[in-house]
Structures are given as structure tokens and as C-alpha cells.
Amino acid sequence: MGIGDRIRALRTNAGMTQIELANKLNISNSTLSQYESSARTPSDDMKLKIAALFQVSTDYLLSGSLTNATDSKAKGVRIPVLGDVRAGYPMEAVENIIDYEEINEETARRGEFFALRIKGDSMEPKFSEGDVVIVRKQQTADSGDIVVALVNGDSATIKKLKRHQNGITLVPSNSAYEPMYYSNEEIMELPVNILGKVVELRAKF
């Protein structure tokens, strides 16, 4: 049984049609059909979204490992959801704890983590309003990473980081939004700080 067979089994066990699942994943019915027939392999981001929807691990999708969300929670480490982060233009970063998520012990050993809930649509279709992202605290990141950045000391935003010799650009996935460029001088003066790297998406439906 391959990943396509497991996606189809999860869908049918949940009583969903292909059209219903495709709508939840923001993909076309033909794309989902290709996934299920193994004619096409989902991207890593899509695997995360499918796993979150059906509350299984990505390991299950790839290999059939029986570790699922329930098993993970039994051995999980709770991390706080620190308010909302806008997937759009920067907003005031609210650091009050609004909820908790759990990560497994293996992940927890790799650093310090927190979670944020998405608001806005600038990172569609990868990240939708209401989704929760798991973030590893770190002050730097590589070009191409999805990061949470703090702008001007009190505004947080989630974007794809693009590095340049003279600065950085925070790039939205949604073409309706303009990339936000900051020169090296602005990075120091505003300032613009990286709070962490997004390592996991937990889509909420």
C-alpha cells in the first residue's frame, strides 16, 4: 500500500467524497485523484495538511506507521499558542496564551518551541486563517524558510524569507499581497527580528 492508497483509505473511512476532500485541501479534484492513484506525489506541505486533517502522522502517510495523533499526544510535550500572527501585513504581537498544542518528545529535544494561530490570507493556499503553526525559536533563518518575524518591536508576521546582499524580503504566498522589503539599515533601525522558523503546519478545518 502506497501513500495514494492510504490517502484514499483515510478519506473513505472519514466518509468523504473526493470533491469534499479536495475542497478542504484547496486543490482540484483531478489533483486529488492523481494523489490517490499515485500518479502524483503530494508536496511536503500538502502531506502535512493531509496528516493534520486526518490526525495521523506524516510517517503514517509515507510508510503506514501506526503512530497517529492520539499516540503522539500520550507522549507529547505541551507548548503554548501565543495569540494570533497575521499572514498579511504586520500586526501587534499578542503574547498571551490562548491555547496549547502538543509536540512529540523527539521534536521537543531539538529546541524551544511555541505555536501561533494564523490570521489573514496572505499565505494562502499553504496557510489558512485559523491554522496553527509550530515554530522553533531561532534568531536567524535561511533564504526560503517560512519564518515569524517581529517588525518594529511590536508587530509579528509570517512570511517566506528571502535574503539579499542589501537586506531581506518577507514574501507572501498570495499574489494579492506585495512582498515587504527591508534594507540592512531598516533591519537594524526598526528593527526587524526573526522570532523563529515554522517547522509544522496544523491545518484546522
How would you portray this structure in words?
The protein has helices spanning 3-13, 18-25, 29-36, 44-54, 58-63, 69-74, 105-108, 184-189, and strands at 76-86, 91-92, 99-104, 113-119, 132-137, 146-151, 155-164, 167-171, 180-183, 192-202. It has 205 residues and is of the alpha+beta class. It folds into two domains: 3-71, 434 Repressor (Amino-terminal Domain); 75-202, Umud Fragment, subunit A. Strands 1, 2, 3, 4, 5, 6, 7, 8, 9 and 10 form a ten-stranded mixed beta sheet that branches. Helix 2 packs across helix 3. The longest helix is centred in the N-terminal third of the chain and has 11 residues, at 3-13. Residues 67-74 have low confidence and may be disordered.
**What is the helix/strand order?**
HHHHHHEEEHEEEEEEHE
- Please summarize the sheet with the most strands: 10 strands, mixed
CATH architecture of the largest domain: Ribbon
Low-pLDDT residue spans: 67-74
The CATH topology annotation of the largest domain reads as Umud Fragment, subunit A
Distance between the termini: 27 Å
Q: Report the CATH C-level class of the largest domain.
A: Mainly Beta
Helix content: 25-40%
**Total domains:** 2
Oligomer: single chain
Rg value: 18 Å
Q: How much strand? A: 25-35%
> With helices defined by DSSP (H or I, 4 residues minimum), what is the helix count?
8
The CATH homologous superfamily of the largest domain: Umud Fragment, subunit A
Mean pLDDT over the residues: 83
Pairing-aware structural class of the strands and helices?
alpha+beta
The shape, in one word, is globular
The beta-strand count equals: 10
